Amino acid sequence: MKNWSGFLQWSPVEIFYPSTENEIIDIVKKANEQGKKIRIIGSGHSFTPLSSTDDFLISLDKFAGVISINKDKNQAIVKAGTKLNVLNDLLFRDGLALENMGDIDVQSIAGAISTGTHGTGTAFGNISTQVIAIKFINGLGEVVECSLSNNVETFKAAQVSLGTLGILTELTIQCIPAYNLFLSVDKATLEDVLLEYQKLNENNRHFEFYWFPNTPYVMTKKVNVTTASPDTSSFKTYMQEHVLENYGFKLVCEIAHKFPSSTRKVSNFSASLIDKHVKTNHSHKVFSTPRIVRFNEMEYNVPVESYLEVKKELVNWINRHNYDVMFPIENRFVKGDDIYLSPAYKRDSAYIAVHVYNKKSFKKYFDALESIFKAHNGRPHWGKMHTQTAADLQSRYPMFEKFKAIRSTQDPNELFLSPYLESIFGNAVS
Ligand SMILES: Cc1cc2nc3c(=O)[nH]c(=O)nc-3n(C[C@H](O)[C@H](O)[C@H](O)COP(=O)(O)OP(=O)(O)OC[C@H]3O[C@@H](n4cnc5c(N)ncnc54)[C@H](O)[C@@H]3O)c2cc1C
């Protein structure tokens, strides 16, 4: 098996595709009897070895779909293996939508919430904050139910749990009535955006920007609710999102990979292609875009108050080291929450994501930037590359010990701890 970027590879002794809750319980019993560990996989889009195992791997690809919709409350109960793109279509059919999303829509809903997947928008938390009740099978094969009002501490642990509390089976999602979004993409300078980003956050439902390293330019994305109908002609959008941002960018990555000395020229060329354009569509068709170019990624959450300083240090490092980097650096802004392992726990946050083409080495670049993030109390995205140890993480997550205690109660036999997760949550680790 491989993860999306191809960087991780592993061979489980057995892969299960259960389609009922009883089948999931039986797998847990079997693992306990045979002394096997269990890891769970969604769409395999994480860059960290969260699903790697030599033992049992469970995929909920056959445990998917909407179970029920409460139209009065705008809530949906969904099976945990449902992919976001399927979920969006099913919700839309019933006049509902997710209030916010990340860049892509191919993750499973359980996988997305388990790592704290997020989008952008200072009024919105990560996707886990949209979940209001969770049902899971714990390490003893018991069915556990928790919610905002019942078994609350377990719920706060289950909202972001890296698949270490149990196998999530059903999630209740607080949706909102379906809506359309208007996207406006523009070119600006990094200098101007760093002066104005707070205002841009205040004035737009969702604001993010990408800096093209070794150039003064950024691409800004502003997204707001509109009553306008979806665009009828999507040719320009197709050209921009599919052809330029994907096939064109892949070509550019290949050129820079084959001729490394051309990286700067190529990066400048990419920045020159930033094209002002707009798009109106149903919300889920605006949030996510295709990602054809494979890369490895590190993303850190920093307190929003530290964002400017972190960003300046990062830009200085790239400029000072004359570092050749092709991929634009993504900047997003998210509201704080109260989920124990959420990177945005108790702080409004900025996320900075750095990417490297998957055929290229990323170590020097990621190591250097990670030391900047760490110096500013950065918390890594759980699904993206980082080198933080249990001790680092413990000092950054005030509820880390609380999470570990709840985890141990739900999984006393450490069924869900692979060697990687043992190094983070194991009882031997303090
Ligand atoms: C191209 C690309 C774009 C991305 N864009 C964004 C973005 O915009 N914002 C962002 O925050 N992240 C983003 N990510 C990261 C991605 O959203 C997360 O890594 C997410 O966890 C992947 O979901 P998945 O379904 O692939 O889960 P996997 O990577 O397969 O698994 C993630 C975790 O969820 C656990 N899990 C899965 N299913 C269950 C279950 N039923 N019960 C218990 N645990 C379970 C797994 O064990 C694992 O710990 C992106 C990744 C890629 C490759």
CATH superfamily of the largest domain: FAD-linked oxidases, C-terminal domain
Q: Roughly how much helix do the residues carry, as a percent range?
A: 25-40%
**CATH class value of the largest domain:** Alpha Beta
Structural class: alpha+beta
The total count of helices amounts to: 13
| Number of DSSP E strands | 18
Outline = globular
* N-to-C span: 31 Å
- State the oligomer: single chain
Q: What is the C-alpha radius of gyration, as a whole number of Å? A: 21 Å
Strand content: 15-25%
Main β sheet profile:
8 strands, antiparallel
Average predicted local confidence, pLDDT? 94
Known CATH architecture of the largest domain: 3-Layer(aba) Sandwich
**What would the CATH topology of the largest domain be?**
Vanillyl-alcohol Oxidase, Chain A, domain 3
